[in-house]
Design brief:
The chain contains three helices and seven strands, in the order αβββββββαα. The chain has a single domain, classed as Umud Fragment, subunit A (Ribbon). With 166 residues, it is α+β, with helices and mostly antiparallel strands. Strands 1, 2, 3, 4, 5, 6 and 7 form a seven-stranded antiparallel beta sheet that branches.
Length: 166
């Protein structure tokens, strides 16, 4: 029986490979997991990441960060302030608190598109309307987050099935 545990070395290699691909080719795609970016990003979405310079990152962008051997795509909520401040602050849309500040060498790129059920979706820089309301609710209730995940996974499965039949 094989273990499903992924070693720290394997996770670090994954981050290094992502950084290398972005540096060499300027773009990277990978499948999102988890629910920290609901409703903008759902588990199973394919994220299209482009290499950017730190000065190109703006509040509202979803930045790809490599930290502690893991990749994380969270929204930028604060830019560095002044010369002494080298960190960007990110936060998952569905998370109640911000992440630890991101330093320049951890910043890998910016999510420019989301591919969901074969459709390309432009990343919204600011959440508005129903998406903003959903974020506020999901941040406060794990139960609502789970219901949202369940309903969207059912809807996506039905959509993919109808695309395959049509």
């Amino acid at each position: 029986m094989q273990s499903t545990h992924v070693s720290a070395d394997a996770l670090t290699a994954k981050c290094e490979l992502a950084a290398e691909i972005l540096q060499s080719f300027g773009s990277l795609r990978f499948a999102a997991t988890g629910w920290s970016m609901l409703p903008a990003v759902r588990s199973g979405d394919t994220l299209v990441i482009d290499r950017v310079t730190p000065s190109q990152i703006q509040v509202g962008d979803i930045a790809l960060v490599g930290r502690g051997g893991r990749l994380c795509a969270h929204r930028v909520v604060r830019l560095p302030r002044g010369l002494g401040d080298k960190g960007w602050t990110t936060q998952g849309d569905a998370m109640p608190t911000p992440d630890q500040p991101v330093i320049e060498n951890e910043l890998l790129g910016r999510v420019t598109k989301i591919i969901r059920a074969g459709e390309y979706i432009t990343v919204p820089p600011n959440l508005k309307g129903i998406d903003f309301l959903l974020v506020q609710i999901v941040r406060r209730s794990v139960f609502v987050a789970r219901v949202f995940v369940y309903l969207t996974s059912r809807w996506n499965a039905e959509k993919v099935e109808s695309l395959c039949q049509g």
